[in-house]
Structures are given as structure tokens and as C-alpha cells.
Amino acid sequence: MSQRHVFALSRPALGLRGSDSLFPVRRIFCVGRNYAAHAREMGGDPEREPPFFFTKPADAVVSGGGPIPYPPRTEDLHHEVELVLALGQGGQALAPSACRALIYAYGVGVDFTRRDLQRAAKAAGRPWDMAKGFDRSAPCSTLTTAADIGHPRKGQIGLEVNGERRQSADISDLIWSPEETLAHLSELVTLAPGDLVFTGTPAGVGPLLPGDSYRAWIEGVGELYGEILPPS
Ligand code: MN
User: Helix, strand, coil proportions of the chain in percent (round to 5)?
Assistant: First the structure.
């Protein structure tokens, strides 16, 4: 006799460009301070810090962007545009040279952050979860497969708000490459198919207000559009 769940639970998923299939999302890992200029704007020292990680719930993902309500309990919602890795394979304690093969697809994501809550958590030595892992805090574009575009390691990454440029850099400026990032992360957890990794944001993070619209892009990877609605 097989046991059934007491209610149905659907798995979050992202669209794949040129396909009717969906990429099922297992977990969302995020890298802190992975571009030198952003590490400095957050008060860090990019020369000395190995990568560090935090997570968001899988259902924080918002497939394809679009409108989201301004989140509760913040007066300082920030945008962070990031290259997203979508893993089709997993593993543990991997060498960087073994990690490229894990990446099934790439996307453009925005790591929404309640910066005021993050500041308070840092000051109190408390976890970042409620600053980073709130509802709809991880919009992500339709994914593009490595089979289609290869493994982009350079190209402009940017974000504009209401048509005004806020963030602009190149993914070749990443302190820890996707392969190095996955290798570090695989020392901490066993990576698995369906995992997303937000690889960190360049400098220029800043506030989003109700009524703002944004466009995020990575050359050769994709684009993401969204807007912030009044609080629901
Ligand atoms: Mn981030």
C-alpha cells in the first residue's frame, strides 16, 4: 500500500527558452560579495574573503519576473542583479574542473533584499533569512541551456530602474567563477539537480519603490522585466 500526501504540493519551476518543459527548482543558494566593487560598497574587503553563502526558499522564485507587491516590514527594498546557475547534476566535495558539467542552464535573477532588515541582522549578529528569503524575493528569467549558449564567462550584466542605469559590470569581474563557487558550495552541502545558485551582484545596488519598473539583463544569457506594485 503506497502512502499519499495529505494534500498536493506543487514544486516551483522556471521556464526554459525554446522548450515547453520546465526546470524544477529544488533549492536556492546565493553568494555574498562576489564582485570587488560591491564587496567594498557593503564595507567588505574583496581581497581576503572566501565566498560565503545564504539561501532562499525554493518558492521564493518568481518565474519570468513581472509585477510583485512591495514586500512587508521593510522601507528599503533593494535590487541585486545576478547570474543564475541552474544545476542539472549534483555532487559533493568537487574540484572546480568537475563543476562546469553540473550547469544545465543559465538565467538572469534579482536577489531582492530587505536592506534595512539585513543591516539590523548584521548589527545584532542574527541570521539574514528574513532579509533575503521572503516571499517572491527571487525573480528569475526564463533559463537558457548550456546546450544552446555554452558556458558564458564574459558579457555585460546590468539593471536599470525606470530606464535609468543602476548596475553595470561584466560577469568576467566575478571574484569566484561559477566553477569555483560550485566547488566551494559542494564542500558545504551535497549539490543536487534542481538547485539554483545566484552568483552575487555587482556594485550599484539600490532601492526600489512602489510603481518602479526594472529591467535586468546579461549579455548572451537573457533579460528579466518586473515592476513593484503597492503593498498588497
Ligand atoms: Mn545577492
Answer: 20, 35, 40
